[in-house]
């Protein structure tokens, strides 16, 4: 077992309202797992809790990584253990080159070139470019993922990796993530509300109103997502399952 999120409840210090409640799911080594659900369901909050952000430390429950309780470990400790997160909105570093940005975590220029190749960016064209607004949303997203990969993660968390993409087709995103998994051996946790992004996953967990309500193979969880959405179109690759009114009533 690589990761076990056990009964996690997140509650802001200044509120009695929970962000997530009793969230439980697990991941094995080299597994790709999608945490899927509508916006506002608490998916990103769980990723932040796994990463160790102070505002998202659990009020209840445990996070176990490779057999060790890391519930209240620092971000630095978790990073040293191989946990990393690519943010939904990439961090902006104005005034430095992509090479300088990547070499904050990469060993050298050669290593930086290698991780850029994994995200389908030509190192000869990009290493000396500035990290500024001349980069498109898709380019910035790729650079952010490359930086996360350069940390040699055991667990790579991608928060809405398709957010703001303007040059990455979903098929290309899927092949890129497969290549990262094959080259690094990392387990990948994808935070998403889209079938196209989560389709690479081996397994998935469905979050709804701050809780994980189902875990299993991705296709099964996607069908459950459609059911919970009461027929709202969620599937883009394959048709949504046909859901009768009776089936909808039974799912509530």
Keywords:
single chain; 252 residues; alpha/beta; Rossmann fold; 10 strands; 34% helix; disordered C terminus
Summarize the structure.
By secondary structure, the chain is α/β, with parallel strands linked by helices. Helices cover 34% and strands 23% of the residues.
Biggest sheet, spatial arrangement of strands: 6-7-8-3-9-10
Distance between the termini: 32 Å
Q: What is the mean predicted local confidence, pLDDT?
A: 85
Radius of gyration: 18 Å
Instruction: Return residue spans where pLDDT drops below 50 for at least 5 consecutive residues.
Output: 241-252
Proportion of beta-strand residues: 15-25%
Biggest β-sheet description:
6 strands, mixed
CATH superfamily, please? Answer: P-loop containing nucleotide triphosphate hydrolases
CATH topology: Rossmann fold
Q: Regarding CATH, which class?
A: Alpha Beta
So how many helices? Answer: 10
**Quantity of strands, as a count:** 10
Q: Helical content, roughly? A: 25-40%
Integer tally of domains: 1
Query: What CATH architecture do you see?
Result: 3-Layer(aba) Sandwich
Reading the helices and strands in chain order gives EEEHEEHEHHHHEHEHEEHH
Q: What class would the helix/strand composition place it in?
A: alpha/beta
The 3D shape can be described as globular
How is this structure best described in words?
With 252 residues, the protein is of the alpha/beta class. The chain has one domain: Rossmann fold. The chain has helices at 43-51, 75-81, 98-102, 109-118, 123-126, 137-150, 170-184, 195-198, 218-228, 245-251, and strands spanning 3-10, 20-27, 32-36, 60-65, 68-69, 83-86, 155-159, 187-192, 203-208, 211-217. The chain has a six-stranded mixed β-sheet with strand order 6-7-8-3-9-10, with helices on both faces. The chain has a four-stranded antiparallel β-sheet with strand order 2-1-4-5, with helices on one face. A hairpin with a 2-residue loop joins β4 and β5 (68-69). α4 crosses α6 (137-150). The longest helix has 15 residues, at 170-184. It is globular, with a radius of gyration of 18 Å.
């Amino acid at each position: 077992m690589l990761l076990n999120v056990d009964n996690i409840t997140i509650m802001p210090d200044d509120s009695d309202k929970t962000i997530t409640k009793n969230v439980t799911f697990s991941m094995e080594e080299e597994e790709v797992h999608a945490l899927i659900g509508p916006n506002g369901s608490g998916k990103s909050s769980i990723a932040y809790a796994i990463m160790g952000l102070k505002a998202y430390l659990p009020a209840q429950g445990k996070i176990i990584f490779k057999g060790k309780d890391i519930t209240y470990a620092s971000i630095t400790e978790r990073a040293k253990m191989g946990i990393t997160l690519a943010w939904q909105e990439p961090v902006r570093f104005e005034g430095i080159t992509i090479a300088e940005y990547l070499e904050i975590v990469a060993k050298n220029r050669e290593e930086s070139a290698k991780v850029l190749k994994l995200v389908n960016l030509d190192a000869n064209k990009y290493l000396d470019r500035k990290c500024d607004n001349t980069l498109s949303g898709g380019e910035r997203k790729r650079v952010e993922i490359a930086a996360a990969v350069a940390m040699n993660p055991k667990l790579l968390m991608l928060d809405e990796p398709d957010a703001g993409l303007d040059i990455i087709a979903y098929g290309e995103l899927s092949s890129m993530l497969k290549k990262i998994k094959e080259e690094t051996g990392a387990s990948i946790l994808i935070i998403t509300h889209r079938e196209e992004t989560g389709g690479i996953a081996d397994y998935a967990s469905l979050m709804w109103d701050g809780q994980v309500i189902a875990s299993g193979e991705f296709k099964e969880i996607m069908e459950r997502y459609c059911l919970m959405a009461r027929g709202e179109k969620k599937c883009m690759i394959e048709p949504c399952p046909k859901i009768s009114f009776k089936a909808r009533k039974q799912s509530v």
